[in-house]
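Review session, final week

We close the course with one last complete record, chosen because it touches almost every idea we covered. It is Bacterio-opsin activator, a protein from Caldisericum exile with 215 residues. Go through it on your own first, then we will talk.
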Amino acid sequence: MIIVNSREVPQVEFEDLVARVFSKSIDLLGGIVKLAEYKTLTWLPSLARATIAIVLKEEYLRSEEEIAHKVGITKNTVRNIVRADPKLALDKMQKIEELTKEESKNLKTHTAGGIAKLAYKLVKDGVDAKVLVNFSSAVLEDIMKTLDIPWAYMVLKRIKGIDFPISSYEVLQERLSDIVSQDIKLTELLPNLQYPISTPAQLIKEIKEHLKMKE
């Protein structure tokens, strides 16, 4: 249990956010398979420590001393993580082959901190790792199928492969062109949805709300 502003934050809430930021950090590096191909899976412990440190600092406003105690690293290492420059890390990630040569075995504290900070910001902006979005979409698809909601099931099948967030309706128009619910073509609703749409679940919710307005 974590206390923030006198409010108890459940451990599961903290762990869920850490998992999402950690997954996004791996996503930024090209994915777990790419890390394996580059023989850089040894980076994962450093990335995990940096992720926990950043979440504790940015989300729960923990002191460097508290973070050091929680993660099992020195205060100086925590300081290097939380002061890391995300832009510098982004520049390095864009040249990952050079990065793997430079940090062949161990990911440097500054680099791990920069990646984790960037991942945290993206997750807070609603941009989760692609693998999580795809997984949640598959789970949602199963639920819609079980509940016998044909239009939602079809939407989830058709949007496979689309990158989220979706910033405009044009990317959906062709894929959903033949889906109809209650005699309403879903493409008629698309321009009125609230963009950007961050997840498949949000897309289904937006369409459902606009279908209700047509009833």
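Two points worth writing down before the exam:
The first strand starts at residue 2 and ends at 4.
Strands lie at 2-4, 7-9, 180-181, 184-185.
Good luck, everyone.
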